[in-house]
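Weekly structure sync, notes
Attendees: PL, DS, HV (note-taker this week)

Item 1: Pirin family protein
DS walked through the input record. Source organism listed as Flagellimonas allohymeniacidonis. Sequence as pasted into the shared doc:
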Amino acid sequence: MSTGIKHTFPLGFPWQTEDPFLFCVYHLDHYPKGEETMGPDPKLLEGRNIGNDFTIKDGWRMYHGNTIPGFPYHPHRGFETITIVNKGFCDHSDSLGAAGRFGEGDVQWMTAGRGVQHSEMFPLLKQSEENPLELFQIWLNLPKVDKLVEPHFKMLWHEDIPVVQESNAAIKVIAGVYKGSEANSPAPNSWAAKAENEVAIWNIKVDEKSEYVLPKAKTNVNRTLYFYEGSEIYFGDRKVNPNFGISLDGSEDVTITIGKEKAHFLLLQGNPIDERVAKYGPFVMNTNAEIEQAMEEYRLTQFGGWPWPYPDNVHDREKGRFALYPDGTIIEK
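Item 1 (cont.): predicted structure, written out as tokens:
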């Protein structure tokens, strides 16, 4: 009897992905109490490779941040970023003049297109208790015809994201359709905007000691299930431990037996773009010549410059969840 598994692989940093996805990274950081600066106590920064701190020490990392954890301004071109913040908060600022604070289940969808700079910082807003952060960032490729579209910024607020409640599972539908429940519209030029591409991003949580059936896709998609939290699970007699990815056959229903702890999964699927990919750091094009052109344009234009006072721009501590769009529209939550 088929288990639906093509192969499994250990989850590294970042996670291995399949076309149309380029990259997926999972951040889980148990940040301490915040200081007035919205960063950790400076004493806790001793012994870290500040500016390039990717080694977990005391349960957390500073990444490229100097005083506040996160990623100060950097460019992108030729793809989309989808940022899911399950715990904690992310402060966004970009060269379009857009900004926001989102978290506790919100999702940001950004089409880099012809080029954008942005910063993603993780302010430690709580001063009297710890500031845990759980975040996925997914890079979804753009086909050649859409590589140089105008950049686009969109928020998917957690109150508006469909969550399908089953008897033993909850499925958060960030992209795609799950048993008739359709996600909010993605960015307009996204590969996910066309239903026939069957792009799906689902965050799935299943109760312990139960059985869950992952429904099959309509087409021959690439489908990967990331098992990032829990104890053992079983596909028939085949055991899979946590922190493994499972490449699945999307043409069949797959039955998963959950072990002694609740299981948390991220599912990424979609029909492949099936075009040549040329990558260099934050640029993803189809040829090396296009990469060189992207680098030259960024050198000359800075993709519009940086309208914010700091490379690691953050918003006022008292600010709630909000989005400032390039046209000046502000939405507050």
